[in-house]
């Protein structure tokens, strides 16, 4: 039997309503970077700063967004190190990048309004959580600074799981914590690493790049 494709394209709020009713969706799970918050360019700048301050070259922004948006920092650093033939202390570099991001860039983060139209529509109607491949401190702080943290029942991040996206761990952790079966979850994501994670978790997902104005 051909495997069902759980991705939805060209999505309006009415389409989301229909998906939720048809598939008995009981939990909405949102990625953060690039889905809830406009951060990809800022994360790139923080990673670039971290590499340059260590005396190392880094990849360009187009490649970073194309290949590594949504991928956990550890996986990204390992891949870049292999490509550029670097020997790196990955955890140390991740901590340094997080420090740079929190000190230099987090105040520039802004919400993605098309996604928050959905968040506001379902607030108080369905439970919503954040499941990010980023660092929990950074995720919680950017949501707090933009006064949107209270929309979500819980925030899950890379510290909560053994494997980051494209592994399904963080989505499965979110569903288990909320007591909801994976097939009753709807994930909102922006990049192939997150799409792969949602599919592997057995969850339906929406590419927020396909959201249309109502």
What does this structure look like?
With 214 residues, this protein is an alpha/beta fold. It has two domains: 7-38 and 109-210, 3-Layer(aba) Sandwich (Rossmann fold), CATH 3.40.50; 40-107, DNA polymerase, domain 1 (Orthogonal Bundle), CATH 1.10.150. Helix content is 47%, strand content 12%. The chain is built from nine helices and eight strands. It has helices at 13-22, 40-53, 61-68, 73-84, 90-105, 113-122, 136-145, 169-178, 192-201; strands at 7-8, 27-30, 37-38, 110-111, 128-131, 154-156, 185-189, 204-207. The strands form two sheets. It has a six-stranded parallel β-sheet, with helices on both faces. A two-stranded antiparallel sheet has the order 3-4. Strand 5, helix 7 and strand 6 form a beta-alpha-beta unit. Helix 2 (40-53) packs across helix 5 and helix 4 (73-84) packs across helix 5. It starts with 6 loop residues before the first strand and ends in a 7-residue tail after the last strand. The model is unreliable at 1-5 (pLDDT under 50).
User: Shape, please?
Assistant: globular
Total strands: the figure is: 8
Strand content: 5-15%
Indicate the CATH topology of the largest domain. Answer: Rossmann fold
Strand order of the largest sheet: 1-8-7-2-5-6
* Helix/strand/pairing category: alpha/beta
CATH homologous superfamily descriptor of the largest domain: HAD superfamily/HAD-like
**Second-tier CATH architecture of the largest domain:** 3-Layer(aba) Sandwich
Roughly what is the average pLDDT, rounded to an integer?
Answer: 92
Number of helices: 9
């Amino acid at each position: 039997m051909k495997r069902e494709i759980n991705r939805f394209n060209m999505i309006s709020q009415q389409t989301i309503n229909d998906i939720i009713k048809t598939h008995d969706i009981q939990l909405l799970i949102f990625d953060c970077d690039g889905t809830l918050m406009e951060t990809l360019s800022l994360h790139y700048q923080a990673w670039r700063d971290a590499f340059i301050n260590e005396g190392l070259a880094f990849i360009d922004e187009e490649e970073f967004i194309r290949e590594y948006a949504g991928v956990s920092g550890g996986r990204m650093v390992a891949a870049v190190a292999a490509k550029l033939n670097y020997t790196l202390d990955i955890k140390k570099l991740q901590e340094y990048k997080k420090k740079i991001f929190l000190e230099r860039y987090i105040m520039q983060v802004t919400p993605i309004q098309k996604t928050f139209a959905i968040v506001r529509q379902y607030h108080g109607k369905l439970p919503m959580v954040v499941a990010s491949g980023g660092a929990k401190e950074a995720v919680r702080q950017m949501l707090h600074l933009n006064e949107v943290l209270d929309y979500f029942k819980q925030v899950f991040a890379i510290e909560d799981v053994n494997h980051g996206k494209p592994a399904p761990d963080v989505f499965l952790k979110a569903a288990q914590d909320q007591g909801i079966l994976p097939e009753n979850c709807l994930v909102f994501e922006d990049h192939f690493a997150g799409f792969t994670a949602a599919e592997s978790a057995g969850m339906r997902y929406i590419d927020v790049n396909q959201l249309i104005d109502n």
